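Throughout our pipeline, every protein is held as a single compact record rather than as scattered files. The record that follows is passed on verbatim for readers who wish to inspect the format:
___
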Amino acid sequence: MPTQTQSPTTKIERGITKVWDQSAINDDPTLPLIDRVLAARDLTDDQSTKDFLNPSLAGLHNPSLIPDLDKAAQRILDAIQNDEPIVIFGDYDVDGVTASAILVHMIEVLSPNTKVSTYIPHRIEEGYGLNCEAIQSLASNGAKVIITVDCGITAIEPAQTAKELGVDLIITDHHNPPEALDDMPSAYAVVHPRRPDSNYPFGELCGAGVAYKLAWRLATLHCQSDKVSTKLRTTLVDLLALASLGSIADVVPLIDENRVITKFGLSRLQSSPFVGLRALIEASDLGPGKVDTEAVGFRLAPRLNAIGRLGHAGEALELLTSARGQRARDLAQQLSSLNEQRRATEQRILRHAEQLAIEAGMTSDDTRAIVLAHEDWHPGVVGIVCSRLVDRYARPTILMQIKDGVCKGSARSIDGFSIHAALESCADHLTSFGGHDMAAGLACDQSNFASFAQALTDHTNSILNPEDLVQTIRIDAIASVNELDASAITTLEQLAPFGAGNPRVRILIRNARINGRPEPFGKTGAHLSLRIGDADNNQSIIRVVGWNWWKKARDISPGSMIDLVVEPKLSRWKDRISVEPILCDLRVSEL
């Protein structure tokens, strides 16, 4: 007679708001908490763990491994030597602006008298990417070399225009490239880590990361040695600050060399020699030691993006390059003011778009994408609203502005669903599109919008199931309240910088007892304060903070047993350090 076996531990559970994915958890209770978390992230051997916890600049890959990069660098140095005018053509988002600034600073250090100028298209008037009119205008003004950053990989016609005008076009980009070499733009050089013929060991650089690799090679070629001068080495270290801004803002995976760039770049931000960058940090009310990935993502990046959304990103680039003194302070304050305007516009569009999506049934299980267009929506803000709706409804979202018979807008996606591939499947309905798996820009004629929306929805419904339309929390480990002490959390902080590809640590605590009543806090009382301890070993009581959680958890009674998912965190106030995890989700325990 066969023996009865115990059913396997459930790997997927539901909280109040999210699904808890415990598939990576290592349940070995003999391992310290940090080792269980590392195992959940596939860091199980000594060398990989050492490399991850102690990133080094030696972990950056040789830039010459990127196809065409050496060719591009040599052409730029020749232009500097021959006094040929150089134009850097950037995108209007944080990644494009920081990528542009990186090359401006490097060229100016190599040759202060070089004729280098910049061009960033107007988001609303010109739209994303390289365009033939800009190429023609720049060529007529004497440009001999045009370097794109964070754009250009699909610019077939502009590349041909540059060739016909005798301009050497150097494309540097990171967005999804064509699948075949023959489909790439016919440019002087196409620098892309994921070109079809690329053997570069890491393909997830952002535009600023690719620009940084080009700047690095400019320095070594200039010195004709891998060892560069002290001045150039200092410049390369300083430029990591800009590359880290681009990496965090563009939400590339913070692993491999992106982790190195971000780790060392963040450490240089507040001591940066770039006056405008320091002014921006000051205008963002970030004190010493306060600049981490969250500060970049929620304070610095939105300010740099705001002017490109509501004005012209050229002023953001000026702030990061030539602005000095009062001009730098004025620009930083201007970006902060525009960011407040952007927030108000965003909230208005979000309320309207959400109402339209609900009325159209786009938030139900039967329609697994949100695709909307409206005359009153600002095209510079719809991308952010897309992200908000993705967060809320866990489905791909496209929002567009209708103007003069044309729909232009942005798309955002969920993990595991390529919005770029989805747009490719609907290309016959579009006049243009570009981007990558998680985000894209697009345009179509107003007369084609309805057919496009239906085609995109049909494509999405054929790939996604209703069970895919949930927010998921990936849990690293199960732990007791007593394990979350200051020492353990300090050790877990070594996994920073956190971001895409390396999210904050999430811990599942089972059968915690609520000590006292849940309490609201904040100006409007929207936030939740819980005090919890282990039910069977109530030695340690800690406070858990739940942002915007009061309405969801205010009815839980004192003494209740709950399961909760938290992000371990230390609260530092003057000389006092206390354990204050952030609440991600909870539920009443089923004992």
User: Anything to note?
Assistant: The chain has four domains: 12-41+476-588, 57-266, 270-352, 360-466. The longest strand covers residues 507-514.
